[in-house]
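quick one before i forget lol
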Amino acid sequence: MTLVRNPVLPGCYPDPTICRVGQDFYLVTSTFEYFPGLPIFRSDDLASWQQIGHVVDRSSQLDLDGIASSGGLYAPTLRHHDGTFWLVCTLVDQQDSTRGGNFVMTATDPAGPWSDPTWLDADGIDPSIFFDDDGRVWVHGTRLARDPQWHDQTEIWVRELDPGTLQLVGPEHVVWNGALRDVVWAEAPHLYKVDGTYYLLAAEGGTEFHHAVSVARADSVTGPYVGNKGNPVLTHRHLGRRSDVAAVGHADLVEAADGTWWAVVLGTRPYGGYHDNLGRETFLVPVAWEDGWPVFAPGVGRVTSEVEVPFAGQWRPGVAQGRASGTVRPDDPRWTSLRRPAAEFASARGDGWDLRLGPSTLSDPLTPAFLGVRQQHAEVDVRATVRAALRAEEEVGLAVRQSEDDHVRLVVTGGDGGSGRKVVAVHRRRGVESTLGELSLGQGDDAVELTMRARGQDYSLLAHGSGAGPVTVAVVDGRALDSVTTGGFVGLWIGAYASSNGRPTRTIAHLERFDYVPTE
C-alpha cells in the first residue's frame, strides 16, 4: 500500500480525463491558448505520471492564431476502444463565436501522431464520447439551454456517432439540466455503463468556488436519468474559502485492473487568501460503489492530501510531473509557447535556447518569443541566464504570465543614446503598464542572471550582473496575477521572453540556462 500525494499533477492541469488500457492509465488535460496542446500522461499506478506527448503538436491541426487568453482548447475527453484512442474536445474563440467548435481526433499510439480534427455538427462545449457494448457510439456535451428557466441554465445532450464517417446521426436527446434547481453550468458530462446501468457524471456550479460533481443513472443511454438523492456527491464549497483545496469538480471515473475505482478531479489550492496562482490542478479520489451509486472519497467525503492506492509502487522522483527541479532543458515536455510552435522563434542551444526577437509582445494575442513552464509550487526560484546584444527598445528576460492584460516582466533592455543596458521590472495590470524598478548594467553584452523568487504571494524580482551579487529590482504582489483577481481559467506560467517591441530586427537573444527550483 502506497500513499499517493495530491495533487497528482500540480500546476495548471485542469479538466482531467482518464482511461485505462491494460495495466496503464492515460490522462489528458486542457491547455487553452498554449502550444503544444493537450498533454498526454501515462502511469501504471496512478502515482507517478510521465508525459509522453501532446495531442495537438502541429500548427496544421488547429488554428490558435488570435485566440485570446483563456480561450482555445477546453475540456477534452480521452477514451480507448478496439485498438484506437479517441479524443473529443472544444476549440473556443471568445472573441468570435463563429470560429471553433467541437471536434474528434484519433491515434493508435497515445504518444502520437494524432489525426487532424474532424469537426462535429454540435454546438456548446465539453464533449464526451461513450462506446456502448452493443457497438453503438454516443457523443454528449453541454450548451446553454435553448429554452432556459433561469440565467446560465445549461442542458446536456446525447446523440449517436457513426464511427465510420465520424458524423453525428439520429435524433438528439436532452437528458440533464443539473442536479439542483437554479444551478448554473451543468457541464463536463461523462457516460459510463456499470453492471448494465448507465451513469451520467457531470459538474455544476461553475468551475470556481461553487464547483461540484453530481451523478444520475438510467436504464437507457438516452434516459430518462434520475439523480442521486445525495447530489452533489463531491464538492468543497461547504468547507469555506479557507479550505486547503477548493473548487473541486469536473470528475472522470476509471476502473483499475484490480477492480477498484478512482476519479480524477480538478481543484485549486488557495494561498495568501482566496487566490489560486497555481491554477486548477489534477487530484486523485478513491471511489466505492454502494447501493448502485458511486461514492467519492468514502468515509471522508473530500479531497485529501494523500490517497492510499493498493497497487501503487514506490514514487519515482522526476517521473511525477512537477516534482523534479533544476535546469529545464530544451527536451523537457513542460515547455510551451503561445498559439504556435516554439520552432518559429526558438532553436535549442546546449542547455538553453536561441530566441529570435520579433515585434510581437506579451500584450498581443499572437506568438511572441515566449517559452514558459507552469508555476507548480508556491515556493520556488526560477532563474534565467540571458545574453544578447540589444538595440534600443529591445528586451529579453523573464516573464510571469497570466494573460495579455496581466503579466510581469523582468527584462534586460538595450541601451539608448549611450545610456547602456538596464534591468527593468514592469507590471502590466488590467492592460496598463507601470515600471516597478530599474537597475543600471552599463555597457556590454555579458550574461545577466535574472531570478523570480516566489515566497507565497511575494514575487521578488532579482538581477545579477557584472559579477555583482543579486539585487532586488522589485517585489510584486502575486494576488494581482491570479485568475480570481484577473478572470480567466489558467494558472501562472513563468518563462523566458524576448521582443523588439514593434520594430523590425535581426537580433537573436541567448537563453543560456533556465532553472526551476522549488523550495517547498
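fyi Residues 114 and 427 are 39 Å apart (CA to CA).
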